[in-house]
Amino acid sequence: MTEMYPSTPGTPSRRSTLRAAGGGALLLGFGLAGCRSAVSESGSAGAGAAKPRRGGTLSVAINSDFTPSLLFAQSSQSYQHRLLYNTLTRYDDQLTPHPELATSWEYAPDGRSITLHLRTGVTFHDGRPFTADDVVFAVQNLQNPVRAAQLRATAAVVTGFEKRGDHELVLKLAHRVNNLFDLFEFMIITDRHSVDDAVRGTRLNGTGPFKLTKWSPGSGLSFVRNDAYWQHGRPYLDAVEFRVVPQGDALVSSLRTGQSQLSFDVPGKNLAVVKSDPGLGVTAYDTGAGALYLGVNTTVAPLDDRTVRQALAHAVDRERLLRQTLGGYGLASAAPWPKSSPAFTEAGRTHYTYDPAKARELLKSAGHTRLHLPLLHLGLPGDTAVAESLQYDLKQAGVDVTLQPTDPATAQKNLISQKMPALWTMSHGFAQVQPSTLAVSAYPFNEAKNTSKFHSAEYTRIVREAWTSPATGAAAGRLHDGISRILLDEAFIIDLVIRGNVQAAARKLHGVTLNKFSYLNLDDAYLAA
Questions:
Q1: d(Cα 111, Cα 119) in Å, to the nearest integer?
Q2: CA 226 to CA 125: how far, in whole Å?
Q3: Per residue in 85-102, is it b (16+ CB within 10 Å) or e — as a string?
Q4: N or C: which end of the chain has fewer CB within 10 A?
């Protein structure tokens, strides 16, 4: 069985050496853990070779609460997904897929169908067996626009299903796409009989390593080990607690006092404090799962003028933002791509340099000397610090912005529904997987309907061609360059810093990983004695 239509790019990250011979798609057994690579600092959590230990409760500090209505949309509130649910496959750092609920697969030679062989002996938390019907439902569920799933366009390419018993399924495709495994990494397998309860937060029934026992809105979530989990002997932990700690100083205090042992939400300015604590460590994931950006509503004058948007792109001191506000964790970049992406180029990264004089010159050429605009941002400490840094930089270029702090759930809903003001700053994902996925899936970049309300026939053409063409080779490179050129020239999304998740954790905690969409994987996690 070989994959005739490559599903993964050929550019490796620096942390992985696994290669799939010839881009082959036959993968049997459990495979790798499929985690995103991490660079540990100063002997941080996960270092060493402590023997796994069963038992204990892990407390995770999060800065915003779970929003059930956004269950099928990737966001900063998606950490719990992989505790409750599984996906079909999971990537390693080179975007090679490995088995999870699908144990192997093969593409048809024409790329118009894929046969999935599904894991047997898997049950949902309520004891019901997992079958091909659950995969059919999962795909159809994401096709439903009500779910607001970023990868809906890819799910919609699946136009037919052929079941061959309970554990073999053929997905029939309207046309070839090169990001199907992005969908498989993204798509959680939920119980088809209780999905309405799931989006209300009353019942989240999955096949994952933990069961939800309680959700206390505004306070957190409680999970206990799923003793019937399909991966024998896992998880090690007895229970997991998510605790909502919105204030940065309180979150750090929670870690330092041992009330929490893990967080991905420590503001950049507080990371030095965490690193200085002998009982804590910092781990920086290096595959760039996210990026901070300045979003621009192109229907608001004078932001409908590309020259004005380019002025804003020159006005931001990305290096200062990275150094002072983010604690030095990340990569200053005008383009959305992390270094692990096949679309990354140094020229794209440095396309817009900090040049307030040039920004003022561009504004003047467009007929403006001073602008007054609103800037929406998440009302969380780290996000507020980013917004304040942008406010300072923009003012030096002649753009006065009024900050609009907003709760994360409302901001995400505004992002999806195209209800953002003139300017906003948030973070985006989807550049860490297939480059085409960013432009057909991420709300800020979606060629068909994006938050900026930007439209371009050329953008649509290049994105569609990149999406339906092989993911590797010279032609793919040219298409990636074409997408980057439009993003940089049009500047409807102004990227600032590529930043993977930064993990702060107790040194006794080991085995924590994240998937490409920042779903927390605790299958192998344990607390050393």
A1: 23
A2: 7
A3: bbbbbbbbbbbbbbbbbb
A4: C
Residue of 207, 212, 213 whose CA lies nearest to 189: 207
Distance, in Å, from the CA atom of 124 to the CA atom of 118, rounded to the nearest integer, reads 14
Find the angle CA(444)-CA(190)-CA(448) to the nearest 5 degrees.
25
- How do beta strands 262-263 and 57-62 pair? parallel
The amino acid sitting at 212 is L
Instruction: Give the integer Cα–Cα distance in Å for 175 and 179.
Output: 12
Residue type, 463: V
Matching residue, tokens 């697969």: 105
> Tens of pLDDT along 21-46?
223 333 333 233 334 445 445 444 44
SS3 347: helix
DSSP letters, 394-458, are: HHHTTEEEEEEEE-HHHHHHHHHTT---SEEEEEE--SSS-HHHHHHH-TTT-SSS-TT----HH
Q: What is the CA radius of gyration of the chain?
A: 22
Residue spans of beta strands (DSSP E) within 253-306: 262-263, 280-285, 290-296
Instruction: Determine if the peptide bond prior to 278 is cis (ω within 30°).
Output: no
d(CA 219, CA 217): 5
Cβ atoms within 10 A of the Cβ of 490, count?
A: 18
Is the CB of residue 335 less than 8 Å from the CB of residue 488?
yes
Spatial separation of the C-alpha atoms in residues 140 and 512, rounded to whole Å:
31
Per-residue tokens: 180: 């199907």
Distance separating alpha carbons of residues 308 and 357, to the nearest angstrom:
14
Residue identified by tokens 């907003």 is 406
Distance between alpha carbon 210 and the CA centroid of its chain, in Å? 21
Q: What angle do CA 96, 102, 105 make, to 5 degrees?
A: 65
For the beta carbon of residue 454, count every other beta carbon within 10 angstroms: 25
Mean pLDDT of 282-296: 85
Look at the block and give the residue holding tokens 């996210």. Answer: 290
Crossing angle between the packed helical segments 248-256 and 381-396, to the nearest 10 degrees: 140
47-83 pLDDT per residue, tens: 455 789 999 999 999 998 888 988 898 777 789 999 9
Q: What residue has token string 């099928």?
A: 72
Torsion of CA 288, 386, 260, 53, to 10 degrees: 10
For residue 272, give both structure tokens.
């030095």
**pTM as predicted:** 0.87
SS3 225: strand
